[in-house]
Write a structure and sequence with these properties.
The complex is a heterodimer of chains A (268) and B (263). Chain A is mainly alpha-helical and 268 residues long. Chain A is built from eleven helices and no strands. The two termini of chain A are 41 Å apart. Chain B starts with a helix and ends in a 6-residue tail after the last helix. Classes of the chains: A mainly alpha (268), B mainly alpha (263). Chains A and B meet through helix 1, helix 3, helix 4, helix 5 and helix 6 of A and helix 2, helix 4, helix 5, helix 6 and helix 8 of B. Chain A: It is a multi-pass membrane protein. Chain A: Belongs to the binding-protein-dependent transport system permease family. Chain A: One of its GO terms (biological process) is transmembrane transport.
Chain lengths: 268, 263
């Protein structure tokens, strides 16, 4: 009955390749010397990378993406860490409901969330503004931060805080010297995750951007809808590179798998 | 006379309680939870203001007749819903969405189950690597992944050229901008969720059941179909529901890889 196990492993390997292949082909395709994207690439040149610099809209979109992702990560980490501390440390009545509520933006399709926020923002004059964009991104980042920080807090020994307080430290010192260093790694990985989530988001962003303010995935999306151009491959490779870099850091700090443990996450 | 009886029973309980103090030594982390609520206030206000209220708002809008939208007199009606279910355009695109989502679920299930089984049977280290490999693509933007499929599925793309070189097909298949393209894109994007939810249920299976089956002489094939598969059905069901609902609500992939309209 060796064949049964062999078949299982063969399909498993095939499935993992299936998951990874769209990312794998993009990078070699970006080095093409032809005027159309293809895999395997024809020839070798870096022309499509230098072309990125000639197209200011990509650079601007990249800077926009990075700026908003950093802000969304900052705010969602502040909100999320405070909230997670409140849930983990104190016996708040109905805390499981509160946790469910705070992670619920994950289980709503992003398309619906985007439409809802757009309709809600329009009378408030927030539609198409950077404030509206930022708010929408914080909403989609908060569940990840909550989940990561709550996981990080599950092994937290509150006696350490108590010991520091008994030894005469004031609450602020306790927080800065004891609590923060211990939950710091969870908060940092929550922040990195939020950054990636915001940086990569297309669906919600589509409803929040304006012609003056576009992010990188939106720029790629509209380029792909118009015409396929090898510049999409080189820009995509840059995105993959940034993502892989952050994933490696995340994996070193806390482990990427933890965030998705049985989660209801919507993407696309 | 119900209330008085319950009071009486409560009194009895209170009287008997000192006799059994060992019953549940409930350790409370903190007696006061007001500071906790204070810590939660910013995030709760934010989620209420920018998530709960907007969701309720569109639910409310869906019941308002379009003609009067924004007008002084809003008319509550189910007109939007009757319109949705009577218009053939909406109905056919709804049916197409359901069909494509079902295909995506099937592809994800058949590819995902062996991966989940392999993860459940491997050591923690290998499981960690597999988790990293299947989860990482989720952190790369969906547009980038779709672009990768575009390269592979083009009429003169990798897959068509390989198939033609092998002599399996004569003319390039229409893979891109077709239902097949959308199914490939969706099943690829949501396969990790299927795997993770099946793995969660496979972990919960007691390994001694499989051993017992082996001792009693069952073949690996028999043990899989009589023990592992039935016990992992909850994971399969939740994975299928998850992938189906994600596919139903997907927008970006159908917009880039499909041709017909899908909501």
């Amino acid at each position: 009955m060796k064949t049964f196990g062999g078949l299982r492993i063969a399909v498993a390997v095939l499935a993992i390749i299936y998951i990874l292949i769209p990312l794998i082909v993009v990078i070699p395709a970006s080095f093409t010397s032809a005027n159309y994207p293809s895999f395997p690439a024809e020839g070798f040149s870096l022309q499509w990378y230098s072309k990125i610099l000639e197209r200011p809209e990509f650079l601007e979109a990249f800077l926009n993406s990075a700026k908003f992702a950093a802000l969304a990560a900052l705010f969602s980490v502040i909100f999320g860490t405070l909230g997670a501390l409140g849930i983990a440390k104190y016996d708040i009545p109905g805390k499981s409901y509160i946790t469910a509520l705070l992670t619920s933006p994950l289980s709503v399709p992003q398309l619906v969330l985007g439409i809802a926020l757009l309709m809600y923002f329009t009378p408030m004059m927030l539609a198409g503004t950077s404030t509206g964009f930022l708010i929408a991104h914080i909403v989609i980042c908060i569940p990840y931060v909550m989940r990561l920080v709550l996981t990080g807090l599950s092994g937290f020994d509150y006696n350490l805080e108590r010991a520091a307080a008994i030894l005469g430290a004031n609450p602020l010192t306790v927080f800065m010297k004891v609590t923060l260093p211990l939950i710091g790694s969870a908060a940092i990985s929550g922040g990195l995750f939020a950054f990636l989530t915001s940086f990569d988001n297309v669906t919600v962003s589509l409803f929040m951007v304006s012609p003056e303010m576009r992010t990188l995935p939106i720029e790629i999306f509209s380029q792909m809808q118009d015409a396929y151009n090898p510049i999409v491959a080189s820009v995509s490779s840059v995105v993959i590179f940034i993502s892989v870099l952050l994933i490696v850091i995340l994996e070193k700090i806390q482990g990427v798998g933890k965030v998705f443990g049985g989660s209801h996450h919507t993407n696309g | 006379m119900e209330p008085s009886r319950s009071y009486a029973s409560q009194e009895i309980e209170q009287q008997t309680s000192p006799i059994e103090p060992l019953k549940k030594p409930k350790i409370k982390k903190r007696k006061v939870w007001v500071p906790g609520l204070l810590l939660l206030t910013p995030i709760l206000l934010f989620i209420f203001g920018f998530f709960v209220i907007p969701m309720l708002y569109i639910l409310y809008l869906s019941f308002i007749s379009t003609d009067n939208l924004g007008g002084a007199e809003a008319v509550y009606s189910l007109k939007n819903y009757t319109q949705l279910f009577s218009d053939s355009y909406y109905l056919s695109s709804l049916w197409l969405t359901v069909k494509i989502s079902l295909y995506s679920v099937l592809v994800a299930l058949f590819l995902g189950y062996p991966v989940a089984l392999t993860m459940a049977k491997s050591s923690a280290r290998i499981r960690g690597y597999i988790t990293l490999l299947i989860v990482s693509p989720l952190l790369v933007s969906i547009v980038v992944r779709n672009f990768g499929w575009y390269l592979l599925l083009l009429p003169n793309g990798t897959i068509n050229q390989t198939l033609m070189a092998l002599g399996i097909i004569d003319a390039p298949l229409k893979l891109l901008f077709s239902e097949i393209g959308v199914v490939i894109g969706l099943s690829n994007a949501y396969l990790p969720f299927m795997i993770l939810s099946i793995v969660a249920s496979l972990y919960n299976i007691d390994p001694s059941l499989d051993k017992a089956g082996a001792i009693l002489g069952a073949s690996p094939f028999r043990r899989f179909f009589s023990i592992t598969l039935p016990l992992s059905i909850p994971g399969i069901v939740s994975g299928c529901i998850l992938v189906f609902s994600l596919s139903m609500s997907a927008y970006v992939t159908p917009a880039l890889m499909g041709e017909p309209t899908c909501p």
